[in-house]
Specification:
14 strands
Length: about 200
């Protein structure tokens, strides 16, 4: 049986994702090694922190190009900051180039509500995205963020949530998947999402 590579590029939240996947019965390797990414059956890009710092670390370790290569062969899931990095550019702190796997940009949430957005919000699904199978509109998941992706193509949006404004909560384009929320902190619904993702490569 193969494994899922969880990309280590110097940010937090790696072990909680690995623990959730392991609990579901999926073997994982936390790694920043390009060879490990190549050998993996799937890749998860987690993250907590600021877009520019994370993007710089990916480029410094040549992981940006390695991740881009993996989407031609296997499923890749970005979580929270990891999802934001999938976009072309980010506007947090300063304009910065992302991985360019999802057309669009990452901008501060335009809302009158308090930021960061911390807590449980419900999802409205936009299309039949494989990682959300078995879940219904209104499913609650856990968010921690002040910035969100703005997809250039509505067909790349897999789910939205409302936080005083319509916020892109998930994206899907080919082998690329992204969750702005934290499935590993979202109870049974989050575990179902991670299970669905893990089964894409089986």
């Amino acid at each position: 049986m193969g494994y899922t590579a969880i990309v280590d590029y110097g940010v937090g939240n790696l072990k909680s994702v690995a623990n959730a996947m392991s609990w579901l019965g999926f073997d994982t390797v936390i790694t920043g090694d390009a060879g490990e990414l190549e050998r993996a059956e799937a890749v998860i890009l987690p993250g907590v922190g600021a877009f520019p710092d994370a993007a710089e670390r990916l480029r410094k370790n040549n992981l940006d190009s390695k991740i881009a290569l993996q989407i031609l062969k296997k499923p890749v899931l970005g979580i929270c900051l990891g999802m934001q990095l999938l976009f072309e550019t980010g506007q947090e702190v300063r304009p910065c180039v992302g991985l360019g796997l999802i057309p669009g940009t990452v901008e501060r949430i335009e809302t009158s509500r308090k930021l960061p957005h911390i807590g449980w919000n419900s999802l409205t699904f936009s299309n039949d995205c494989p990682i959300f199978r078995g879940l219904e509109d209104g499913t609650y998941v856990y968010f921690v963020h002040s910035f969100c992706g703005k997809a250039a193509r509505e067909e790349d949006v897999a789910a939205r949530t409302d936080y005083g404004a319509s916020v892109v909560a998930a994206v899907h384009r080919g082998n690329v998947y992204g969750c702005q929320f934290h499935p590993e902190k979202s109870g049974e619904a989050g575990l179902q999402i991670l299970k669905n993702f893990g089964e894409l490569s089986r």
